């Protein structure tokens, strides 16, 4: 297949699905990963795609976040390990809030496997789905309604935040696209940020689960200041300046 044909195919897949995986394109087009990477680089240069680890996506004007389909390919082993570590902070009978991050999806799977008799409040369609497939699972699930955001497989909007206001959780577990030392937890989407802020505000203990790359990333929407977090669970030791900032803000750090 000629380059122009490959790139036309990729453009069509992006328009249709909003994101593409390099592995899927290699199989569909019967070519190497290097070839696909070159194609994506050229499409990005032409303003027709935004490359990311493992694939590419079409950014939206008011939401530069990476689609869930691509985010699930980032650090899957580390996310699983962080989820299992977070499990040790959850006790029988707890009421917890989980956001729609792929990290919390891993945590929900760990909870399911452990058979913990707890209550989970979430805006994640994926989390609700995995428990719906296990009708006899120990956890009780409360699904927050609202507007379905296909990019993140989650419910967002004022209906979602209004429902959060009806609950008080023992613990909330959230992740976010980026953490800024000056401003705190940040997001790419205002509505998603408001849901995460609501979960933080309506829980007695707040846990942030984030891989090490989140501490050097940028996002434009503020969720909350760093001081609202009680515990950070991450996969690698943070730089000394970050550790000092966490000590200053009385945030407990948990490494794998």
Automatic annotation (TrEMBL):
Gene3D superfamilies, alphabetically? 3.40.50.1360, Winged helix-like DNA-binding domain superfamily/Winged helix DNA-binding domain (1.10.10.10)
Protein's job: Repressor of the lactose catabolism operon. Galactose-6-phosphate is the inducer.
**InterPro entries referenced in this protein's UniProt entry, alphabetically:** Carb_Metab_HTH_regulators, DeoR-like_C, DeoR_HTH, NagB/RpiA_transferase-like, Tscrpt_reg_HTH_DeoR_CS, WH-like_DNA-bd_sf, WH_DNA-bd_sf
Q: Which GO terms describe its molecular function?
A: DNA binding; DNA-binding transcription factor activity
Task: Report the SMART domains cross-referenced here.
Answer: DeoRC, HTH_DEOR
Protein name, entry field: Lactose phosphotransferase system repressor
HTH deoR-type domain spans which residues? 3-58
Alphabetically ordered keywords of this record: DNA-binding, Repressor, Transcription, Transcription regulation
- Give the species this sequence originates from: Lacrimispora sp. BS-2
